[in-house]
Amino acid sequence: MTFLDVETTGPSIIKDHIISLGVAILFPDGSVATSVELFGGGTSSTRALEVHKISDYERQYKRWFEDAASTYAKMFDKSILVGHNAKAFDIPLIWGAMKRAKVQFEATAVLDTLKMARKIELDKAAGDGKLGSLCTYLKIPYGNHDALGDALSSMALFTTMVRHMENPTLEKVKLLCS
């Protein structure tokens, strides 16, 4: 399973750019491989800068995500992708950037921990569905808008929710994430 999180220049899945991508791959034996990369491109909105604290200056000489798209497409192809609010934000941004780069990949499944938390009403217990709130409620370390930290937090949140399911299967999890 591949857990991911993006930080962007703003909230638009159409016009904003990916400026950081964090990836945590959970292997069947329980081991984890991680990757994080900063990207150039676009100017961060004031609000986005307040959230992720990645300055445009810090990434001015970095390659754009679109230049790295083929590498990530190979990593994501035939993988189960998991993230928090991934179906509404991260994955559409990634697919949009891949399309601009004329690169494609096909995920086996896209699982969204926000949708899963809402289905089991964990968001109500935590006060809201924000990744930080859910992690705090479950006493899981929270990445706090750092792409790799948030990918790892999503992995911990996902595995915690799955561990509490009765006889979890991919099909049952997909239903909770739809």
Give the tags:
178 residues, alpha/beta, Nucleotidyltransferase, domain 5, 5-stranded mixed beta sheet, 8 helices, 5 strands
Description of the molecule:
The protein has a single domain, classed as Nucleotidyltransferase, domain 5, CATH 3.30.420. Strand 4 (80-83), helix 3 (86-100) and strand 5 (109-112) form a beta-alpha-beta unit. The chain has eight helices and five strands. With 178 residues, the protein is an alpha/beta fold. Helix 6 (131-138) crosses helix 7. 44% of the residues lie in helices and 17% in strands. A five-stranded mixed sheet has the order 3-2-1-4-5.
CATH class: Alpha Beta
Q: Based on DSSP secondary structure assignment, what is the total number of beta strands?
A: 5
CATH topology assignment: Nucleotidyltransferase, domain 5
Distance between the termini: 17 Å
How many independent structural domains?
A: 1
Strand composition percent: 15-25%
CATH arch. level architecture? 2-Layer Sandwich
Order of helices and strands, N to C?
A: EEEHHEHEHHHHH
Largest sheet: 5 strands, mixed
What structural class do helix, strand and pairing data support?
A: alpha/beta
**Range of helix content:** 40-55%
For this structure, what is the CATH homologous superfamily?
Ribonuclease H-like superfamily/Ribonuclease H
The pLDDT mean sits at 94
Assembly category: single chain
Overall 3D form:
globular
In the sheet with the most strands, the strands line up as: 3-2-1-4-5
Radius of gyration computed on alpha carbons: 16 Å
* Low-pLDDT segments: none
